[in-house]
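Internal QA ticket QA-208
Title: Verify multi-chain structure generation after dependency bump
Assignee: T.L.

Test input:
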Amino acid sequence: MSTVALPARGASLRTLASTDHKRIALAAGALAFVFFLAGGMLALVMRTQLAADGGVVSQNTYNQLFTMHGSTMVYLFVVPVALAAGLYFVPLQVGAPAVAGSRAALAGLWLLALGGASMWSGFLTSGGAASASWWGFDPLSDSLHSPGSGMELWIFGVMMVTLGQILWAGCVLATALRHRAPGMTLMRMPVFTWSMVATCLLTIFAFPALILALALLWAQRHFGGVLTGGLGAVDYQQLFWFYGHPVVYVMFFPFVGMVGEILATFSGRRFFGHSAFVLALLAFAGLSMTVWAHHMFSMGQATNKYFSLTSTALIVPAGIEYFDFIATIWRGALRFTTAFLFALGFLVQFLIGGLTGVIVASPPLDYGLNMSYFIVAHFHYTIFAGSAFGLFGGIYYWFPKLTGVLLRERLGKLHFALMVIGTNLTFFPMFILGAEGMTRRIARYPAATGWQGLNELETVGSYVIALAVLVFLVNVAVSLRRRRPAGPDPWQGHTLEWAASSPPPHHNFDSLPPIRSHSPLLDVREASEGAPA
Amino acid sequence: MPSTTHAYTHVERVYFPIAIGVFAVIVGVLFVLLVLGARRARPGKRSEALKLESAYAIALAGVGAFLLWTTFRAEAPIDRTVAAPGLRIHVVAAQWSWRLEYPDGVTIDAVSSWQPPAAAVPTGTEVEFSGTSADVIHGFWVPQLHFQRQLLPGYTTSFDLIFEHGGMYGGTCSVFCGDQHSQMHFRLQALAPASFRQWLAARSAAQAAAATRLAGSARGPTASAVSERTVEPPGARAA
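Actual output:
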C-alpha cells in the first residue's frame, strides 16, 4: 500500500522508506561504498605518513586513523556490502517476489547510516575519534586509558550497525529458507545464495557476541567492576574474537559465491561440484565458529593446540572450493570479461592470504609473526586482494542487472590492471617487513630500521589503488550517462536473476522458467540447443 | 634444549615450501586452463565428480594432519618452562616502559626509547621470564627469537627463552597500547655465562653505590633508593 503513495514524494523518500529489497540493498551498497572511499582516504593518509618519515600526522592522530580505517572497512564497508548483495540477489535467485521481513531490512539500512555517522562523528569531538583499534580491547579501551566521547560514539555506532547486520542476515536467511519459488529446492539454490545462507548463519550466531562484548565494555567504562584485571581482558577478547573470526568469513563467503557465479557464467558451463561446494561451505561455516582463539595464541590463555587444529582443518573445505572453481574453468569456453578477470584476481590473490593463514595457524610461527606487518599483509590479501576483487567482479557482473546498463569493458580492464599492480605493490612488501619484525600501528619508524624503502614502495602502491578506484568511479559515471542498454541477460547467465528485466520490476518476476537444477537458465538454453532445428 | 628459534625455523622449513609449492601448482594449472579455455568453442558438460572430490578431501586432511604433527611437536617444548632455569627475570610492562628485574635486586628500566639500555642475559641456558603489566595489555616480543607473549595486568605469565648466540637482541611491544606504543623497546645483550656474571656483579655494585650516595645525601628514604630510576609514566602522560 505504502509503495503506491510513495512515488509522489520523490526519489529520496523512496530510497529512505521503501521496503523493496532492491532499493534497500542498492542504498545500503552505495552507502557502504561511500564508507569504503572514506576508509580508503584514511589509509592514504597513513601511507603518506609512513612514506614521509612521520611528518604528516601525530601518533595520536595516526591511532585514530588506523582505528577508524579498520572499523570503517569491517563494520561499515565489507560486511554491509556483502549482506546488501544478499539482500538484492537472494530473493531474485530463489524466485521470490520480495525479501522476508522487509521492514526489518529497512531498519538495517537506517542502523548502518546512524551507526556509521556515530562512529565518524568522533572526529568532531575534542578528544578525536576512537583510537583503541577496531578491536577496542579492554583495558586500553576503558575510561582510564581511552577517555572521551569518541570511544563512546564508536561503541554505540558499532552496536547499531551490528544489530542492523543481524536483522539483514535474518531477512536473507528467511528468504532463502522459506520464500523459494516452486521447484527451487534447497539443493537447486545457486552457489551465491548458498554462500549467503552460510554467511547469514554465521552472522546470526556470532554477531550477538560483539554486541555483548561492547555492552560489557560500556558498563565497564561507566560503572567498572565488569571486566576486571588481566582475565577481564581475556574475557573481552574471547567474546570479541567469537565475533571477530566468523566476521572474517562473513567478509569472504559472499564473494566466494559471486566468484563462483562469475566463473561458471564466463566459462559457459555449469558450476562444477555444486553439491560438494554446498557441503564444503556449510562445513566451512561450522568450523569457522570454532577457531576464534587463534587470534589469542600469544596470550597463553587459550588451548592453542585445539585452535590450531580447527584452524588448520579449514584447508579441507577451502581446498574443495578451489577444486570446484578450477574444475569449472576446466573445459570451459572462456570469455575474458572484466568480471571474469576480477574473479581470477580473487582466486590467485586470495590464495596468498589463505596460505599465509595456514602459516599463522601454527602457534610456533604465530609467536614470531603475530602483531607484525606479516599479519597486516595476510588479512589484506584475504579482505582486499581477495574479497574486494570478488566484489568488483560482482559489480561488473551485476551492474547491468542493477541499472539496466553495461559498464565499459576497456575502462574496466584498466581498473583491473591498476588494482592488481597497486594491491601487490602495497601489500606484498608487508610480508617481508613483518618477518623482519616491523610492528603494526606505529606512526614512524627510525631510519636505522632500514624499512623506509619498502614503506615508500607500499605508499606508491596505495596511490595506484586510489587511481584504480578513480578509474572505476569514472567508469560508473560514464556508463550511467552514455547508456548502453544491457537487456535482461547480457552474459548468458545461469541463474534466475537473469530471467527478470534489468532492473527488475518491483515484484521481481513476471514469469519464471521451469526450475530443474541450480542453473535454470542454462537448462533452457541447453534444451533449445539440443532440440532439432 | 630446543629454543624458540629452532621451533620457528623447523616449522617454517615445512610450512613455507608447501605454501609456495601449492601456490605455484594452482597458478600453473590455472594458467594452462586459461590458455586452453580461451580457444575452446564448446564447453564441456561434466559437472560432478563426487568420488574424486572425496578422495581429494581425504588427501587434504592428510596434509593438514602432517602440518599439525609438525606444529605440535615443535610447540610442546616452547610452551613448557623448565624447573631450574639458568636465570629468572621478572618483567613489568607499563605505559610506556619496560622494567626487567633480576633476582638479586638489579633492575633495568627502558623508558620510551628506540635506544633503550641493554639488559644482559646468559647464552646457552634457559632464561625464564615471568611477566605482567601495570596497566593495559602489552606484548613482550623478541623478533630475532621469533617469540612473543602478551603481558596482562593482574596476571603473571612465564616462558623460557634460550639465547644461543651472543649479541644484541632487540625487543619491542607487539600489542598496541596507546600513544607511545611506538617507543616501547627493550634490548637484551646475550653474554657468555662468565661475562654475564661479571656484568651482573658490576651492575649490582653500581646500583649499591648509587643507593649509598643517595642515603649519604640524607634527604629521604634509603631502602628504595634504587627507585631513582623508577619512572612513573602511567596516567600522568596518558592524558
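Spot checks passed. The radius of gyration of chain B is 26 Å.
Status: verified.
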